[in-house]
Amino acid sequence: MSSAFVIPRSSKRPYAIFVVAIVFLCLLAAAGLRASPSVLMVPWEKSFGWSRATISFAAATGICLFGLTGPFAAAAMQRFGVRVTVMSALALMSGATAASLWMTSAWQLILLWGVLSGVGSGCIANVLSATIANRWFMTNRGLVTGLLAASTSTGTLIFFPALSAILEHGTWKTVVVVVSCGLAGLIPLVLFFLPEQPGDLGQTPFGAGADHPAAVPSKANPLRTAFGALAEGARSRDFWLLAGTFFVCGLTTNGLVGTHMIALCSDHGLAEVTAGSLLAMMGLFDLVGTTASGWLTDRFDPRKLLFAYYGLRGLSLIYLPHADFTFYGLSFFAVFYGLDWIATVPPTLALANRAFGEQRAPVIFGWISASHQLGAATAAALAGASRTASGSYLEAFVVAGAVAVGAAVASLFIATGRRPAAAAA
Q1: Rounded to two decimals, what is the model's pTM?
Q2: Which range of residues forms the domain containing residue 336?
Q3: What is the C-alpha to C-alpha distance for residues 271 and 256, in angstroms, rounded to an integer?
Q4: Among candidate residues 208, 90, 199, the one with its CA nearest the CA of residue 140
Q5: Residue 205 domain-assigned?
Q6: CA 361 to CA 353: how far, in whole Å?
């Protein structure tokens, strides 16, 4: 595969910036895939007669596997390379999405949009961000992590109005075709323009000295690497605190708001495009908030940042069911919540790096990210079941807000370890 790479080795410009741009686009496309079930929930309900609980279960399955795939994807990147892993994931997502054009039963929805799409998108998620940040950057890692994390969440949110507009002028199959083609179109970009590491260009990581050693590819079995990292992390209290708080992060973001926000607004009479525009507004502010969070993580105690993020998020979720469900009435929530959407990623990764070291952190962070998606899957399924049973999302949002406040307190008990010299500089 290395022969496919076409960038001249003599280039002296820091290619790490271009790598971030390519990975940003891949994360953005995977986010579009994960956003699609939320937009298609009502059309699928009308077209096939499936209940919200059934469709929510398929979405929850995808979210769950999206997270559980992370540590194995990180181990595969160390063993087989980033480029091979990412291209395989893009092909799997594109193929599974296209195959759903011919689905007729609920089990096919769960298989294609739950199992296969979940595994594929799990390879292009936070573990990819962690691997790229640690492999290509010695300085400004928090900033890069924040930018890449923002691409995941911002992409999910900005795709809502775009996909809703396509749906408004077409059918759910039109949305599926657009998503599938967009994923397939990124494969050549990754093949020809994404090197494995700076050494492939005769460069060193951004901010590193000329004597910085090149990364050595792992020859270990990816399954053994992934489960070995889990065993190592499970012996640490910090791992359980990081995984627990990140579980709450997933529960209160893409699992609840990301999956059910459009349906919630629809229950209160807002059109899908209007609700999608609110989520797009959240996405724009999330890009600012999460990138700023990365900058702050390079300079301040990550525990205190997590305390602020989870606390403010919890209060905003408790407020939402009591808001005036008009576009202007929800705009305050969209701005406030958007700034905090997934700002937790940079400080969480920074704490994982300090607790477990830069080499092991990406795989262990994969397990921490898995807890994030387990939380998201829990919220997606339970909120859908609660809505089906009671006809209201009120209880789901208030409970999620209270849990987020609890996570804010738990964040203060995570040990920070010694502050790295690079971050202090």
Answers
A1: 0.71
A2: 13-196+221-424
A3: 19
A4: 208
A5: no
A6: 5
